[in-house]
Each structure stands twice: as structure tokens, then as C-alpha cells.
Specification:
about 200 residues, alpha/beta, Rossmann fold, five-stranded parallel β-sheet, about 55% helix
Length: about 200
């Protein structure tokens, strides 16, 4: 029989503060996992065996990524249930994973827009040489270039991030997450509640 104390899942849009929250929680000695790290591993594995040469193949590629991410996160959750520990998982994995508590970081669209663009600009400056090499690599398709920049250097497509896209994403994700039992709270409130949990 599996015994475990509690498994907590925290989700949120890009730049909402998931990684920062995870670091805050980890400093308190709580076991943490980031779905972004798992996704990075999957992308690197898939790129070794898959060529992305069209929009349709690009879509199938990302569908396979999300399917594999859900599979690995569910496996991770099952492994965590064998531990008598409080465990926090962050990321954008499937909402159907079986956990004890679910949170979604509440952040104003204006703040998301600012954070996302600031972060992306810093990454572009930091990895300019590597990005130049990718862009000018004629052996790669434009879809592969986009995927590699996203995976290795955190440069997501869309810079600056379109305001209307942020609003649509936030509204859609909020509706979906509320339907699936997520609590919408600020980063600090989520942190305080998790730390206070037994």
C-alpha cells in the first residue's frame, strides 16, 4: 500500500513566477520538481530522431511532446506517492494528474507581459552568439530552429508577446483550471499556504 503525505501541483502561464516559487519552496527543504526540466529532456531526445519539416509535422511533434510529458509526470507522481513527504511539482503538465492540491498562480496580464518580455530580452542578449549560429544553420528547418531556441535557451516564439494572446490565454486557462479544481492565488499566498500545510 502506498503512503504519502501530500503532493501539490502548481501551474501558471509563462513568466507568472512558477520557477521563482519553486526555488522559494525548495529553500524550505521541501522536495520539488519542475515540469519544464522534464520537457527539456524530452525535446532533446526527440530532436535526435525527428526532423520537423512542415507545419503539420511541427504540430505532431509538439503533440507528442505533451503526451510524453503527461506520461512522465504521472509516473513521477506515482513514484512520489511512495514517499512520506510533502512534494511540490510545477509546470504546465496535464490537469488530470492525481495530486492532493492544485494551485494556479494569479498574475495580471499586464505584469505577465512585462515579465515575459524582460526575461526574453535578457535571454536573447545572454545567448546571442548561440542564437546567431542556430538562425544561420542551413541544415535546420525554421521549425527546428524555433524548437531548439525554445528548448535550449528559453526563447519562446512571439517577442514581444502579443497582449491579445496573453488575455486569451489567461481567460481560457483560468476557466479550464477552475473547472478542474485549481485554487487561483498570488505567488506569495500559494507559498504561504504550502509552507503552512502539514
Amino acid at each position: 500500500m502506498m503512503i504519502y503525505r501530500m503532493i501539490i501541483y502548481v501551474s501558471g502561464l509563462p513568466a507568472s513566477g512558477k520557477t521563482t516559487l519553486l526555488k522559494m519552496i525548495k529553500r524550505r527543504g521541501i522536495i520539488t520538481y519542475d515540469c519544464d526540466d522534464i520537457m527539456d529532456e524530452i525535446i532533446e531526445e526527440k530532436l535526435k530522431t525527428t526532423r520537423i519539416t512542415s507545419i503539420s509535422k511541427n504540430r505532431r511533434f509538439y503533440q507528442q511532446l505533451w503526451k510524453e510529458l503527461d506520461k512522465r509526470v504521472k509516473k513521477l507522481v506515482n513514484e512520489c506517492k511512495k514517499l512520506d513527504k510533502k512534494i511540490v511539482i510545477t509546470g504546465l503538465a496535464s490537469n488530470i494528474i492525481q495530486v492532493d492540491k492544485r494551485y494556479f498562480i494569479k498574475c495580471k496580464p499586464e505584469e505577465l507581459h512585462k515579465r515575459y518580455n524582460e526575461r526574453t530580452l535578457k535571454l536573447i542578449i545572454k545567448y546571442k552568439t548561440q542564437i546567431d549560429e542556430i538562425i544561420n544553420n542551413d541544415k535546420l528547418t525554421m521549425f527546428e530552429k524555433d524548437t531548439i531556441m525554445f528548448c535550449r535557451y528559453g526563447i519562446r516564439n512571439g517577442f514581444p508577446w502579443f497582449p491579445d494572446l496573453i488575455v486569451r490565454l489567461f481567460k481560457g486557462k483560468e476557466k479550464h483550471c477552475r473547472k478542474n479544481g485549481f485554487k487561483f492565488m498570488s505567488q506569495q499566498d500559494i507559498y504561504d499556504e504550502i509552507i503552512a500545510l502539514p
